[in-house]
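> run fold Isochorismatase
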Amino acid sequence: MVVDMQNGVFATPRLARERCVAQINRLVRAADKVIFIQHDEAGGLEA
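> ok
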């Protein structure tokens, strides 16, 4: 399982934010294998 969870998604208050995070956490716990990737360069992929 691969989950692309970015901080920018939560920069603005969103409907059901807590439910979304809880669902991702449930999926991570249930997964056989989980790959975590963290981007740490400034600027991201914006043009």
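The two ends are 28 Å apart (CA to CA).
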